[in-house]
Amino acid sequence: MVQVLMETDLQDVKFLRRGKVRDVYEIDDYLLIIATDRVSAFDVVLPNGIAGKGRVLTQISLYWFNQMKDIIENHIVATDVKDYPKVLHKYKDLLEGRSMLVKKARPMPVECIVRGYLSGSGWKEYKESGTVCGIKLPDGLVESARLDEPLFTPSTKAEEGHDINISFDETRKIVGDDTASTLRNTSLRVYKKARELAEKKGIIIADTKMEFGVYKDSRFKIQDSKNQEGKLILIDEILTPDSSRFWSMKDYKPGKSQDSFDKQIVRDYLLTLDWNQTYPGPKLPDEIIEKTAARYREILRILTG
Fold first, then answer.
1. Which of 113-117, 163-167, 232-236, 243-247 has the weakest average pLDDT?
2. CATH number of the domain where residue 54 is located
């Protein structure tokens, strides 16, 4: 039985925060991000995790960060434990394959979402108003339809609960005109390149969410964001099953919801239970864990080989 990593405890390293999936530590001038095997659904972290999930998320992120270097730099400093500060070497077994040593960056206060297909909350809004995040779309579109042009639909970050979709004008008010335009243009370039690469491997990227941060560097200045010095870089994770919808091109049929390479198996199971979607969440049966783990491994294999 593969051991499931639910929490980390690096006793001689400064602990910063615990997210739904990632634990973050501070060491010297860097951050150490560890992807655990925790799984959340309906904004609730469940009591048992998906074996190997953290490694899959990390390896997929590393693949995409490398692919996007010609568009924008990212926060990665090192991914091999032997290149980490010496105090971390004794944690090699825990860290290998599921951690990243990264630059400290000030996260942008908006999350950058790109939608190439009509799905999820976008489809729900379209049915009600013919719009997605306030953007008017043509009449007569069906669920999972491919959009003529991908949409940039940012949201504000929520510490708890769901993020809130905002308009591009609201984004400009938060980060400034120039930074908002840079976030939109870069997000669209990243999505379009990823979509093209994935389609060659038989995968549709329906939508994705990415995060940017400002890395302090006196050679660069982010305009309109309180005039702070720094360089805009990609941070967090990128184009993983937790931040994106991946569909099989072979099985794709517009007009209905699609089978995703992610934790949809978990969500579908939970919807069969008498659970009010609040803490504490129910324990997942072994069969659901194994099926979900296999889906994560499958998309890692397809995308990265």
1. 163-167
2. 3.30.200.20
Angle separating helix axes 53-67 and 177-199, nearest 10 degrees: 110
- Which one, of 102, 130, 134, lies nearest residue 33 by Cα? 102
Number of domains in the chain: 2
75 with 15: CB under 8 angstroms?
no
- Least trusted range by pLDDT, from 217-226, 230-239, 263-272: 217-226
Q: Kindly list the distances between the CA atom of residue 251 and the CA atoms of 80, 254, 257, 263, in Å, as whole numbers in the listed order.
A: 37, 10, 11, 18
Decide: 73 and 234 in contact? Cβ < 8 Å. yes
Query: CA 284, CA 40: separation in Å to the nearest integer?
Result: 11
Burial string for 105-135 (b: 16+ CB within 10 Å, else e) reads: beebebbbbbbbbbbbbbbebbeeeeebbeb
Q: For residues 49 and 29, what is the distance between their CA atoms, to the nearest angstrom?
A: 31
In the DSSP assignment, the letter for residue 257 is -
Handedness of CA 248, 252, 254, 260 (dihedral sign): negative
Residue 6 and residue 41: Cα distance in Å, rounded? 15
Model confidence pLDDT, tens digit, residues 168-213:
999 999 999 999 999 999 999 999 999 999 999 999 999 999 999 9
Q: Give the domain range for residue 155.
A: 107-248
Domain boundary among the residues 77, 103, 129 is at: 103
Does 283 have pLDDT greater than 70?
yes
pTM of the model: 0.93
